[in-house]
Amino acid sequence: EKGGHPTFMDKEIAEQPQALADTLRGHFDGTRIVLDEQRLGEDDLRTVDKVFVVACGSAFHSGLVAKYAIEHWTRLPVEMELASEFRYRDPVLDRDTLVVAISQSGETADTLEAVRHARRQRARVLAVCNTNGSQIPRESDAVLYTHAGPEIGVASTKAFLAQIAANLMVGLSLAGALGTKYPDEIGREFAELEKMPQAVADTLALMEPVRQLGRELADARAVLFLGRHVGFPVALEGALKLKELAYMHAEGFAAGELKHGPIALIEDGLPVVVVMPSPRAQPLLHSKLLSNIREIQARGARTIVIAEAGDDAVAPFADTLIELPVVPALLQPLITTVPLQILAAEIARSRGYDIDKPRNLAKSVTVE
Ligand code: M6R
């Protein structure tokens, strides 16, 4: 049942190219993005003037990634909200608000209650979900299913990548309805997405040095993760994986925040994983990250750098350099997440932990 893999998590990491391909398949009809269930008309989407995205844990991080793309493509304000916080404040919602609820299981109580709250305020709700017939899609106005297949490992991997792809399709669907993108532009973005299963497969083939690194870091006390722009949610996701699986203190930061506090944590030998933006596509952010790396290396950090292949500028400052395929900037999280999943799994395994069933956690959290 694990298909020759030692754990479900290993199997699910390996299945990521397939999960992405299956999630994308059949969703572009040459003109627009096709949702799976739509109890809303195109007209309902046309009047949307604000988007809230609600989710928990990894699903929340997938939404944070997509926020950058959805705002860029639609010019709508997109607010990312932890589902557990959403209804306990007084969010401004009305008929023209679209609430996107992301959930692998479709049964997460915090997310379900956020959906119910939104509907009581007459907002429209679109679910991104991996489980057919689960409660969140049943209570939503429209659904886009991720086709990652059943995810058994408690730590989300393939569902997370599939969620990013689906969230991006939500953005393209909205851009189509609002007219901020023409069908040919949507087609071009979709074609880039369709190249990602191969890019993830190529990334998976490069992971042996990451496994080795995981074994080396088994005794580390803490690990920090830094990123910017779409690399910031990847840093958060990398830290969450490490907490869940290796029970290690791990934190993700937006690298620009470093000098506002976290740099005080840097000490000799502390492993810091840095998700580099592309020097080609995001030169300004790249140069900012470069100076961050120099700062932390000067203070003794052990720098582990996830970078685009051919990023020669960063190489001298990387104690360990993991080079990944070149992909469009907004799609980078689909590949930069992979080494962080493998790093967390390998550290946890080296410490002797059960990576499919981490302590204290349940696969779906059905109580608030
Ligand atoms: O089923 P959901 O996507 O609603 O679950 C949300 C979170 O509980 C989930 O992503 C959790 O954070 C994972 N264990 C992360 O690996």
TrEMBL record:
Annotated SIS domain residues: 41-180, 213-358
Catalyzed reaction equations: D-fructose 6-phosphate + L-glutamine = D-glucosamine 6-phosphate + L-glutamate
Gene Ontology CC terms: cytosol
Primary location class: cytoplasm
Keywords for the protein's UniProt record, in alphabetical order: Aminotransferase, Cytoplasm, Glutamine amidotransferase, Repeat, Transferase
The keyword Repressor belongs to this UniProt entry's keyword annotation: no
Keyword Repeat in record: yes
Cellular compartment(s): Cytoplasm
Superkingdom of the source species: Bacteria
Active-site residues, record numbering mapped to chain: K363
One GO-annotated biological process of the protein: amino sugar biosynthetic process
GO molecular function per UniProt: carbohydrate derivative binding; glutamine-fructose-6-phosphate transaminase (isomerizing) activity
EC number: 2.6.1.16
Enzyme's top EC category: transferase
Subunit (UniProt): Homodimer.
Job description of the protein: Catalyzes the first step in hexosamine metabolism, converting fructose-6P into glucosamine-6P using glutamine as a nitrogen source.
Protein name, per record: Glutamine--fructose-6-phosphate aminotransferase [isomerizing]
Lineage, uppermost ranks: Bacteria, Bacillati, Actinomycetota, Actinomycetes, Nakamurellales
Gene that this polypeptide is encoded by: glmS
Portion of the full-length sequence here: 252 to 619 of 619
